[in-house]
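Structure first, sequence second, as always.
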């Protein structure tokens, strides 16, 4: 994914389509926000304030439209999101709970099985500002790479400068397994530990200055603005008490640690029979700590759930049933040249089978489709072919089928 390479946080504002009537906006506050140093963007008003009325089952239903499988993750995530946002709503209505433990979530699971897809789809539904970034882009000092506080400032940007809105957004941090510093993981360096420490206060209850201390232009602008107004520079902050943190990672190799731990207490034959997916569902604090994460960090992630790998049948469903299926993208691309594509089930099965050999989850579908459709995409737009079917034969021999199609036309 592009954001993986660039290391920039990927952010997403609320969408409007498909959002049930029980999620609605009210008036909020307005705030100026620095988009780039020297560029000020003023949020349009009135801004939406927060109103949340979804039930866990409604969130899970919405997720079912886009994400195949991952039933347990959908359930756990829906409950955590409802708990969190019902709490936020009640707090904003003045009904403040005396004790509340934030339901930050840890998602485990291999690459390309829908972790990001789940979180993104849920954030779209709830209509809260959402920021995604890879944990690897941060450094302890914030000078090289970035500062974890930037995540919160990015959330403010996604909220159009509305501090109140940003204060109940979702921050999604991927690749947290790369922050592991010791143990069996062969973690990178001590910096990962520092990043975890910096995240601790954000995950619980911290205040982040709207303008980064490292942002000289922003600091200067702030001071000048204050001088013009005849006052002292304002230190405006964003509070993180109601920001939900969701973190994820593949934690590859942790299955061995889990198996090793289970063998001490359970029947060895039973443990030996457990699949990698089964083992990840048993992940406990001890395993994560042994993997190299700090107990304080893990302790702030009470909700944990494992995503399973996608087999060939799942990948078929991803193509056939998911509303975000790649086949719609191909249909559109060919339709742009007036070409109609018919995806036969046998063709989809063959694509899924090939993709599962890639071992990159649903990402394998992209790789396989790109190879299969490469020549067709190049040649068909300038040919007389106006329609074709994606059969198993075409998937196995796209070049041969292309020749046949061109001859037929
Ligand atoms: N279970 C699924 N159902 C439908 N589509 C999926 C599923 N899993 C993955 N996809 C598709 O594959 C793409 C990549 O998946 P996603 O980004 O969610 O992977 P991930 O689990 O976050 O992997 P990584 O650990 O590498 O970040 C998604 O954009 C989506 O189109
Ligand atoms: Mg991801």
């Amino acid at each position: 994914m592009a954001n993986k390479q660039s290391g920039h946080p990927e952010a997403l504002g609320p969408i409007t389509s498909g959002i049930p009537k029980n999620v609605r906006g009210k008036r909020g506050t307005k705030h100026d926000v620095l988009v780039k140093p020297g560029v000020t963007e003023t949020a349009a008003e009135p801004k939406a304030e927060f109103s949340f009325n979804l039930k866990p089952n409604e969130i899970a239903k919405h997720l079912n439209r886009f994400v195949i499988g991952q039933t347990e993750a959908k359930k756990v995530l829906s409950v955590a999101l409802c708990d969190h946002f019902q709490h936020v709503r009640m707090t904003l209505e003045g009904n403040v709970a005396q004790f509340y433990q934030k339901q930050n979530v840890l998602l485990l699971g291999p690459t390309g099985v829908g972790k990001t897809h789940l979180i993104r789809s849920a954030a779209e539904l709830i209509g809260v500002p959402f920021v995604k970034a890879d944990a690897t882009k941060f450094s302890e000092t914030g000078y090289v790479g970035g500062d974890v506080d930037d995540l919160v400032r990015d959330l403010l940007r996604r909220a159009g400068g509305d501090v109140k809105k940003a204060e109940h957004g979702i921050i999604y941090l991927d690749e947290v397994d790369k922050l592991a510093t010791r143990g069996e993981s062969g973690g990178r360096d001590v910096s990962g530990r520092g990043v975890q420490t910096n995240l601790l206060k954000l995950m619980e209850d911290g205040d982040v200055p709207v303008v980064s201390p490292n942002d000289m232009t922003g600091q200067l602008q702030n001071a000048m603005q204050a001088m013009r107004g005849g006052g002292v520079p304002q230190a405006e902050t964003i509070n993180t008490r109601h920001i939900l943190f969701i973190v994820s990672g593949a934690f590859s190799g942790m299955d061995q640690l889990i198996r090793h731990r289970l063998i001490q207490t359970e029947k060895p034959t039973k443990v030996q029979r457990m699949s990698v997916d089964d083992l990840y569902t048993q992940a406990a604090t001890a395993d994560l700590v042994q993997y190299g994460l700090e107990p304080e960090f893990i302790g702030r992630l009470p909700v944990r759930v494992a995503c399973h790998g996608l087999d060939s049948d799942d990948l078929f469903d991803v193509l056939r049933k998911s509303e975000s299926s790649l086949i719609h993208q191909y249909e559109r691309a060919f339709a742009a040249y007036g070409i109609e594509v018919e995806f036969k089930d046998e063709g989809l099965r063959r694509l899924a089978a090939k993709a599962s050999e890639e071992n990159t989850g649903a990402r394998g579908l992209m790789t396989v489709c790109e190879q299969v459709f490469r020549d067709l995409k190049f040649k068909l737009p300038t040919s007389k072919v106006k329609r074709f079917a994606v059969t198993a034969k075409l998937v196995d021999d796209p070049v041969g089928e292309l020749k046949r199609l061109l001859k037929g036309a």
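Margin note: The mean pLDDT is 84.
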